[in-house]
């Protein structure tokens, strides 16, 4: 690595050389930053504790102590990273890998550490009871303000830990809790805890780990120190999303709280997990959020056995280091429908099977390699806007004419908050783009964008584009040709791509348009893109603005 951090040469981090390079790149990409040195992580303490106290769950190695692999050690060191003020850096982590990569054992280990291990940095004092009701604070004899004499952090157990396991069902939530339960029934910690179905609690002190399904009622009132959410892609309903919001909000009430999401890829980027993955892929996570996403290269051929195996290794670090049975995984890959195999074993998000575009056509339009994305507000610009007042998403697509004559498109998408779209925020975005870019037209349907007349009065160049009109039939045909002929480029944003490719064709006696597919996935970027592309064909001087719809009807 040309920019290899100097502390990687520390003998205490020699094991890092054995971490699969692809995994290490995913772990340290973007704002994640490098694997921290021992002076800035509780990772060494966590790893020692796990290998000493944890036990493996169901399988051939049941009840045995785990021997952490280099990639697992690197991930734990990263999760346990601390700031200079001794607080843990990450309050949120999303880890997405292929099926069979050991996500459930990993979740069980992290939960066990939080429940009974050295989960936090010592505050620099100890509590010594004096009398019945008063605690006197005594300085810690081992450290100074949390730091040991050798400069490493002093790791201690936390007060009143509450580990919450959540999933779309009790059965799924039990997978991680079962891993944790084995630690407290088969290992050296067995005398110190009571383990039962759905609950592990410490004896003689406060502290528990439990599992709940993703329902607001079950999540209400939680103040979890660690929230473990397994296979988040299965949490697709609004009710489940509310439950997650409640439970993850509870971790904010605890010092050094952590929300850890573990999942393979899903099939709808408009869901809770899809939006979080899209956010991570855009690089929008902040310094307190960790994003690790392993997926197979798009150039691999899912009909070729060697490529199938390579894709599995790329998405599954257990397979990459030779632990998983590659031949068995390849056989499973080939035994199921392709869209499901790609999700499970290549950790690739799949689009709707009824897409209006030929396979691979949209991906071929992504700006990459020699075709660079151009950032230039002076380029001729057209905006297409599609609004939904509630439950659906809303989108504004920006199309610009490049110097080579091709078009480039990007999207800004709003998701409903409490069931409603923030109309003011969307309007302000349109105003800001029109104020800073060379915008010729804003194409939108007044029936679905209620503030269109207000925006027009503010001076925005509004071009009325009824969703059910003849112009939309022409617009979709133009958009299809622009994509198939690769006249259009896009920025590769995952949520934009998902909405465009999820649209399904709908034929009538007047021609064809687009609608939601059978899965009901959101497609607002598709009509917005079509409206913007249609507007590129309308010279400004030829348009006589019609009276607003309210004046006609």
Structural notes for this entry:
The protein is α/β, with parallel strands linked by helices and 553 residues long. The chain folds into 3 domains: 18-123 and 158-293, P-loop containing nucleotide triphosphate hydrolases (Rossmann fold); 305-345, no CATH class; 363-552, Nucleotidyltransferase, domain 5. 33% of the residues lie in helices and 19% in strands. The chain has helices at 21-28, 43-53, 70-79, 103-116, 170-186, 216-219, 238-251, 272-281, 305-315, 317-320, 326-335, 338-345, 423-436, 452-457, 470-484, 494-502, 525-535, 549-552; strands at 92-96, 120-121, 125-130, 134-139, 155-156, 162-167, 193-196, 199-202, 208-213, 226-230, 258-263, 289-293, 380-386, 394-401, 407-414, 438-444, 462-464, 488-490, 504-508, 511-515. An 8-stranded mixed beta sheet has the order 7-8-9-6-10-11-1-12, with helices on both faces. A 6-stranded mixed beta sheet has the order 17-16-13-14-15-18. Strand 10 (226-230), helix 7 (238-251) and strand 11 form a beta-alpha-beta unit. Helix 2 crosses helix 3 (70-79), helix 4 crosses helix 5 (170-186) and helix 11 runs antiparallel to helix 12 (338-345). The protein starts with 20 loop residues before the first helix and ends with a helix. Mean pLDDT is 89; it is low at 128-134 and 548-553.
